[in-house]
Predict the 3D structure of the following.
Amino acid sequence: MKISFARWQLAAGAVLVAASVFFYAVHYAIFKDSLHIFSHLLTDLAFLPIEVLLVTLIIHRLLTARETGERLEKMNIVIGVFFSEAGTELLSELIRHDHDLERMRKEPVMSLKEGGRELSALIEALKAHDYRVDVKSMDLEGLRSYLVRKRDLILRLLENPMLIEHESFTDLLWAVHHLTEELVHRKDFGSLPESDLSHLRGDIKRVYAALAVSWFGYMGHLRDTYPYLFSLAIRVNTFDGNASPIVTER
């Protein structure tokens, strides 16, 4: 592994070494006791591995773990804003047109609520879902209007540096943004050729799959961190069959 140092780091290192040599020289000039100097130097060198252990392996790890936890907390706040402002309602609309709607509504939510399965295993099971939607039964014009109204929110979230490390959620935002652009560039949804419908079906499926997995991941975070918020979210969750369709603003 190649290790590189910045010029200022090399300069700082040279200054520190020079300062140490200077003070040792002053000590010898005053006391003329080289044995004392080498005795203390050897003692300091003997303690150095322990100091490295304490600072690098223990304290640094504790600080890193704390920083990672704070970063994840802030990242989940951003994800919560997305679902509160756009994601949950969009997911509700897509669920209503799922070909395998009943299984999608029943099994995953109950498993999450009862804590019967680990979140990672539940998300892996969700990834195996087909996520096929009936595009012809959807109100594509209403969906377009809704996504256009949320476009600024999506772009602002994509600019948030907190999401750089959350690749899957960033991919979700890009998928939503791409779907918005695809819908905007189509004017008359009543006369779309099958090729266009097939393309939109693939884009919607991509968004739906990413939304579902991210929603359950966020619910898992609420369950473990904010039980009172999880209780509310699970009682009004988008999989319960009472979700309202997207309404176009006039």
